[in-house]
Amino acid sequence: MSRVRVVVAEDHPLMRTALIHAVNAVPDFHVVGEAESRSILFQMLFEFPADSLVLNLCLQDVCLLDHIPDLLKVRPGMKILAVSAYDDERLAFHSLLGGARGFVSKTADASEFKRALRAIWAGETYLPEQMKSRVEGWLSSKGPVRGRTRRDRIFLLTAKEMEIFRLLGEWRSTVEIAGMLHISPKTVEVHRIHIKEKLGCPALADLLRFAVNWVKEKRPPL
Question: Does the predicted TM-score (pTM) go above 0.90?
């Protein structure tokens, strides 16, 4: 069996080193490249063959959820393992819906990470046990039961809207979000209106409270 070539995309140096070490510790897997930003990642995939990608969903404050299909266009057949600091079923759902083969939280231990890496290479889907049945059920119907709770309605958001929702929860301004996502402030405002409608938030203040609470709940303590 030839060795599986893996690219690791992670913007925090210590975490990137840990992920590289974890990949190289798996027999027949080895890291052939590392990227700390979206632009470097795309350039690397254009230039170097990669069989698998360990992808932190947030690189330098840019969420890559809606870029997963583009990454697969660059490297068709590449198996993506999404990694996030947010242990949330909605991110797992959107990751797999976009084409990733697995999802793990950064709070996972090394053994789970290795299981996930091996599983996706074997053609399986990997999800943490505590979210597996729910996310797989939602994937089979392209979403959860609609309209019951506001948290259920988060699944109505597109990957781009989910990205903006997260940034709103981090108290980012419209101008900041526009700069980070390379879109106009007007486009951000339009997305924000759609997010309010989908989540049933009557006012911007209500949306901001919901987003801030979601970020606090899903982000692990430092």
Answer: no
